[in-house]
Structures are given as structure tokens and as C-alpha cells.
TrEMBL record:
Gene3D superfamilies for this protein: Dipeptide-binding Protein, Domain 3, Periplasmic binding protein-like II
Listed GO MF terms: transmembrane transporter activity
Nucleus as UniProt keyword: no
Protein name stated in the entry: ABC-type glycine betaine transport system substrate-binding domain-containing protein
GO cellular component terms, semicolon-separated: ATP-binding cassette (ABC) transporter complex
Domain ABC-type glycine betaine transport system substrate-binding: 65-161, 254-347
Keywords for the protein's UniProt record, in alphabetical order: Signal
Biological source species: Rhizoclosmatium globosum
Signal sequence, start to end: 1-19
Length: 373
């Protein structure tokens, strides 16, 4: 059975002001929380903790605290502490709370926690109800999950348009800014064995394209996203386009996508395309992912909405068996406390976690469309 990371809704946005985190299965140790003592991380040059908003305040530190919950066993706790330390290295405020009694649900339905770093779905009969039906928690995959799916563009566009905040999805709502990308209908129409790549799938693909209602209007000025085939991430982005009213159409081009992207890249031209890492294909290019809520913004867990820039960290986070084993061993032989063990692991294994820290957004300093909230 695999453990998973779960991100949950968090509706309380004013926790900084000491509002209580109350749910029947959450123990906060009064108002002290279980947040581990500080852990010094040398050479913290990732830049997240010094990143500033346009008004001069610190970007991550000025956000509400991220709330992590652990369960009453060592791997859950040290896993949570490691996450705490890395988020703190990025400048976030973090609060750790404990689950007790061992039931799943109240903390999610009452929007109390953001992340549960180790969760055993088989322990909870309501797991499916929570993640699939009520959708108050999102399964972010196995703790070892390391794939990142999204919309990408070549990073040289950040240099070509430094004032445009291209890393944040809201640039799509600004007609001037999005017009740097090819308009709908400009990509090739690709036939495969004499037939379109996809067709006759209402809401998904008609004659190789997905065109949302709002892009059928006159002067909609929609732009084109290149996608392989509808079977990759089926309907996720169609519904995202609908939900956020993104002025974007999808052109399904099969593997030709890679040729088009390579060609644009060689010419330093704008292109917006679907992709995922780690792949041999994307490893050849310097590309940037558009950050946005992964699904219908009004339904998606507040973690995704409030901390879009931190999602890449959570999905990259991966402690394998030998790593968690080493941490647990240093606790079991009594040489270190749990928080010391987590801190020592963070201090001693920088090459392992460094890739989890997302690349610093470059356009925050001059955010013309106020997309960072
Ligand atoms: C609980 O809070 C008290 C202070 O109220 C603190 O001394 C104690 O260390 C906390 N317990 C844990 C496990 O963090
Ligand atoms: C921090 O940087 C100093 C100077 O470059 C270097 O000597 C030291 O090894 C670094 N420490 C870590 C933990 O990377
Ligand atoms: C500065 O900007 C940030 C982000 O927009 C905001 O959260 C914060 O309240 C602002 N601070 C002041 C003093 O206006
Ligand atoms: C990727 O492109 C950005 C923007 O041009 C640049 O700042 C960064 O150094 C590049 N990264 C690599 C690994 O080339
Ligand atoms: C499908 O789209 C292509 C390219 O726009 C067009 O040439 C073709 O007539 C369309 N086919 C149908 C059945 O609409
Ligand atoms: C997004 O979620 C809200 C709230 O549940 C709902 O009203 C809206 O219809 C949803 N939009 C789409 C496109 O599903």
C-alpha cells in the first residue's frame, strides 16, 4: 500500500491572527502547535525567502501560514518536519498540528489543514468520498511521486517580456500580454492516416480542436495551446479552460508537438504547449510552467489557490525508503530526537532536496496585472 500526500481545503485565511484551528480530530497543543524548533539551512540562496512583492513586503512571509498535519508515528512526523523545514527555508510560515483521534475528515471538511504528507488511504473507508465525491481533499499521489504536468513555454520569453508575469496564469486574461502567443487556429492541422487525431468528442475534441464557448464569440482573441492527444490528462485542461474562462483553444497535434516546439525554440519564438517532467523531451529545453490552480478554482483546495507557486515543491517532494529509513534509524538508536533527525537530514542531504525547491519566479517584482494574491 502506498502512502500519499493529500492537500486539503483551508478556508480560514486569518490564522495569523491567532484564530484557532479547531476540528474534532485535530490537536494543536493549545496555541503552541507542534511546529519543530528552527533548523538552520546554510547558504539559503534559493531566493524564495527574500523575494519581495511590488510594495516591498516579503512574498512568502506575508502569506498566511501553511498548516501541516501529522499522524502519531515517527515517519509521519519526521516527514512533516522535513517539509516544514524546507517550506521555512522558502520563507513560509508553517504550523504543524496533530491528528487525534485517528479519523480522516473533520480537518478537511472544516478546512483546517493544507497538507498531510503521509496518508494511508486503506485506513479510511471515507477516502474515496473525500477525494472523489466531496473533493475537500486532493490526492497528490504517492509520496515518491515526482511528475509535474502542465502548460509550458520557453523561458527566453521571460527575458523578452520581463514585465509580463508570464509564469502566472492570469496573464492569459490580459489581451495584450497573451497576444504574444500564436492565436487560435495558427498551428498546423495534423492528420494521422488520413483522419484527424481526434474528432466527435463533444467537450473534448472536435476535428482536432477544443474550442470553448467563450472563444466562439467575435473578437475573443483566443490563443492556442498545443496538446498531444485527448487521452493525456483527459478533459482536465478543457474543464480548466471552461472554469477559469481562459481565452485558450486546444490544438491536438500528436507527436508533431515536439517538432513544433523544437522549431519555435530554435527560432526563439513564443509557443504554449502541454507537457510534463521528467521527460527526455523537456530535459532538452529551458522551459517554464504556467502556475495555476489545477482545476476549477472555486472548488480546488485553497492550498492550490493560495500557494500556486509551492505546488511544484509538494509534488516533487520525495523521500524514498532508504532516506526515511536512515532518519528513522537515527531516532531509533536514541542518538537524535525526531526534530533533530529531520533537521540533520535536511542539513546533510542538500543535493537530494535542492531540486524540490521550485525555480524562483522572475516576474514578481513588476507584477502589472496583480496576479499574485
Ligand atoms: C506544547 O506546548 C507547550 C507550551 O504550551 C510546549 O512547552 C511543548 O513543548 C509543546 N509540545 C510539543 C510536543 O510541541
Ligand atoms: C556554504 O557556502 C560555503 C562558502 O561557499 C561553503 O564553504 C560551505 O560548504 C557551504 N555549506 C553548505 C552546507 O553547502
Ligand atoms: C503588500 O503586498 C502584499 C501582496 O500583494 C499584500 O499581501 C500586503 O498586504 C501588502 N502590504 C501592504 C503594507 O500594503
Ligand atoms: C532558463 O532561462 C531563464 C530565463 O532566460 C534564465 O534566467 C535561466 O538561467 C535559464 N536556466 C538555464 C538552466 O539555462
Ligand atoms: C477540420 O478542420 C480542417 C482544418 O481547419 C478543415 O480543413 C476540415 O474541413 C475540417 N473538417 C470538418 C469535417 O469540419
Ligand atoms: C466550478 O465550481 C463552482 C462551485 O462549485 C461551480 O458553481 C461552477 O459551476 C464550477 N465550474 C465548472 C466549469 O465546473
Amino acid at each position: 500500500m502506498q502512502a500519499t500526500i493529500i492537500a486539503a481545503l483551508l478556508g480560514i485565511l486569518a490564522i495569523q491572527t491567532q484564530a484557532q484551528l479547531i476540528a474534532s480530530n485535530i490537536n494543536t497543543n493549545g496555541t503552541s502547535y507542534y511546529t519543530a524548533p528552527d533548523c538552520t539551512i546554510e547558504n539559503n540562496s534559493f531566493g524564495w525567502n527574500t523575494l519581495r512583492n511590488p510594495n516591498g513586503s516579503l512574498f512568502t512571509a506575508s502569506k498566511r501560514p501553511i498548516v501541516l498535519v501529522y499522524d502519531n508515528w515517527v515517519s509521519s512526523r519526521v516527514n512533516t518536519y522535513v517539509t516544514q523545514y524546507l517550506l521555512q527555508a522558502m520563507g513560509y510560515k508553517v504550523r504543524v498540528v496533530a491528528r487525534s483521534p485517528y479519523i480522516l475528515g473533520p480537518e478537511l471538511y472544516q478546512h483546517i489543514v493544507d497538507l498531510e504528507m503521509e496518508l494511508w488511504p486503506s485506513d479510511f473507508t471515507n477516502y474515496g468520498q473525500i477525494t472523489q465525491v466531496d473533493r475537500v481533499g486532493f490526492d497528490l499521489g504517492p509520496v515518491g511521486y515526482n511528475g509535474i504536468v502542465g502548460w509550458w513555454f520557453p523561458s527566453y520569453l521571460l527575458d523578452q517580456y520581463p514585465e509580463y508575469s508570464l509564469e502566472f496564469w492570469k496573464f492569459l486574461l490580459n489581451p495584450t500580454i497573451r497576444s504574444i502567443f500564436p492565436p487560435s487556429g495558427s498551428g498546423p492541422f495534423v492528420n494521422l492516416n488520413g483522419a484527424p487525431i481526434c474528432d466527435n468528442m463533444p467537450g473534448t475534441c472536435l476535428n482536432n480542436t477544443y474550442i470553448p464557448e467563450h472563444c466562439r464569440k467575435k473578437n475573443a482573441n483566443c490563443i492556442e495551446l498545443l496538446q498531444y492527444v485527448p487521452e493525456y490528462y483527459t478533459n482536465i485542461y478543457q474543464r480548466l479552460i471552461d472554469g477559469l474562462k481562459l481565452p485558450v483553444t486546444i490544438n491536438f497535434v500528436g507527436d508533431t508537438l515536439q517538432t513544433i516546439v523544437r522549431d519555435a525554440y530554435n527560432k526563439q519564438k513564443p509557443v504554449l504547449f502541454y507537457g510534463w517532467t521528467p521527460t527526455v523531451f523537456l530535459s532538452q529545453f529551458n522551459v517554464t510552467k504556467v502556475m495555476f490552480p489545477i482545476s476549477n478554482a472555486s472548488e480546488y483546495a485553497a492550498f492550490g489557490t493560495n500557494f500556486p507557486e509551492a505546488q511544484a515543491f509538494i509534488t516533487s517532494y520525495s523521500l524514498d525508503d532508504s532516506q526515511i529509513g536512515a532518519i528513522l534509524k537515527s531516532v531509533s538508536d536514541g542518538s537524535l530526537t525526531e526534530t533533530q533527525a529531520a533537521c540533520a537530514w535536511v542539513q546533510g542531504n542538500r543535493p537530494l532536496w535542492e531540486p524540490w525547491i521550485p525555480t524562483l519566479p522572475q516576474s514578481i517584482g513588476n507584477d502589472p496585472i496583480q496576479c499574485i494574491r
